Amino acid sequence: MSVSSVRLTEHVDNLAKEARELYLHEEVPVTPKPPSPLKFHREWVCANRPVLIEGVMADWPALSKWQNLHYLRNKIGDKEVSVAVTPNGYADAVYKNKFVMPEERIMKFCTFLDIVEKKLDAKGVFYVQKQNSNLITEFQELVCDVPEDITWATEAFGKDPDAVNFWIGEEKAVTSMHKDHYENLYCVVRGQKHFILLPPTDLPYVPYDLYQAAVFKENEATGDFEVIEDHVTGQVTWIAIDPLHPDLETYPQYTKARPIYCTVRAGQTLYLPSLWFHHVRQSHGCIAVNYWYDMEYDIKYNYFRFLENITDTMNK
């Protein structure tokens, strides 16, 4: 390694170290009630820090009604919805050196619930997770149980949410490590979600690689899942490491990362700032609604892009 590369490594190490010392926490802080728009923006959004907020859903009908899956069965059981199906629970993740997306199936919601409740045997792991504002586009009947936005967040961001998503699935369903260009308010209604978080300043320790895109497809004759290459999508850049089982021999830089572990329980809301890396697991039958607000492409984004370029230079 050249002298200049060593010095760059020292500088990015100092950046991550100073971020942890100056404004980040070893745990996600908890606030006992929803903040005012001003306080939320000043203390959490501007600082790009996650926070766990109590009381956001105190007046949501969903918080009581959705605890019983029988309510959802009666409300939308006969409706056909999109369900992601994988053999291993990992959708949109690296598998056998490919970036593999789930098989998308259309099925009645009552059939999906039968699988979740173990009333029906089916191969694979099933997860309602379509991130196209599916609460509005597919589950309109449930909109009366949740608000269309988080009012104090909408005021703080100065915009309406870009998408409102509905999530429900099996315990084996896992969201691989990634980041989003959204300010995310993640509301757990039933069960719990387990997040592994990394701040944007840990970017140099998060390995990426280029993978051929593919999709899972169940072979109807054998019942086995096959991996079918998706040449339309082509090559996809994705995070190469699984934080649950990190390959530190291949990616030794990840040893410098300092993950933050956070469990979000029913009735709690996680503010997940834009550009934070996150990996998500859940309890069986967990239900959540999240609100995506488009991030501001301001100096924060400029600095992140600069760090990306520095990291690319170091890795060449």
Q: Which geometry do the CA atoms define?
A: globular
Structural class comes to alpha+beta
The total of helices stands at 8
The low-confidence parts are none
* Mean model confidence by pLDDT: 96
Give an account of the 3D structure.
- This protein is 24% helix and 34% strand.
- The chain is an alpha+beta fold.
- The strands form three sheets. It has a nine-stranded mixed β-sheet. Strands 4-10-18-12-16 form a five-stranded mixed β-sheet, with no helix packed on it. Strands 5, 6, 13, 14 and 15 form a five-stranded mixed β-sheet that branches.
- Strand 5 and strand 6 form a beta hairpin.
- The chain is globular, with a radius of gyration of 20 Å.
SSE blueprint and pairings:
Layout lengths: L2 H20 L7 E2 L5 H9 L5 E4 L7 H4 L3 H8 L3 E7 L3 E2 L1 E3 L2 E4 L1 E6 H8 L8 E4 L5 H4 L13 H7 L5 E7 L4 E5 L3 E9 L1 E7 L9 E11 L6 E5 L5 E5 L20 E6 L2 E5 L4 E6 L3 E9 L4 H17 L1
Parallel strand pairs: 1-2, 4-10, 6-13
Antiparallel strand pairs: 2-17, 3-7, 3-8, 5-6, 8-9, 9-19, 10-18, 11-17, 11-19, 12-16, 12-18, 13-14, 13-15
Helix pairs in contact: 1-8, 2-7
Write a concise synopsis of the structure shown.
The chain has 316 residues and is an alpha+beta fold. It has helices spanning 3-22, 37-45, 62-65, 69-76, 109-116, 134-137, 151-157, 299-315, and strands at residues 30-31, 51-54, 80-86, 90-91, 93-95, 98-101, 103-108, 125-128, 163-169, 174-178, 182-190, 192-198, 208-218, 225-229, 235-239, 260-265, 268-272, 277-282, 286-294.
